[in-house]
Amino acid sequence: MYGFETWSLTLRGERRLGCFESRVLRRIFGHKRDEVTGEWRKLHNEELCGLYCSLKTIRIIKPRRKRWEGHVARMGERRGVYRVLVGKPERKSPLESPGCRWEDNIKVDLQEVGWDMDWNDTAQNRDRWRSVVQAVIKLQLPQNAGNFLTG
Predict the structure, then answer these.
(1) CA-based R_g, the chain, Å
(2) Are 18 and 57 in contact (CB under 8 A)?
(3) Domain extents for the chain?
(4) Which of 5, 67, 109, 126 is least enclosed by beta carbons within 10 angstroms?
């Protein structure tokens, strides 16, 4: 997950990431013998969650991406990372895929939490942005997994 804070994910990308994660876990845990028929079968998603009780990858990515966005927004306009974050592409994208910018991900994540604000101005205030990050963490996590992201 190196550099995952900078990933710009579409919903399709999130689904594909989840499928990849399940496929890797199925390969790690192997098949299961059916108790009734005695045949081997693949593990279901619920069984995988029972065997591997860690967080899903996307649940780790979103809150950490929020932290990184706040950090970059406070950098200033002259920094290259900031220009990449808020910049508009100069060339046209192909018709079949309009592309997903990093800023688009920021707006979607804020809408999921119910925050309707100018994210760049909010990120300038560290305490207020920290409350946004905490809202994303609470939305993404089960009750007993809060320490995993904050550590």
Answers:
(1) 19
(2) yes
(3) 9-53, 59-91+98-151
(4) 126
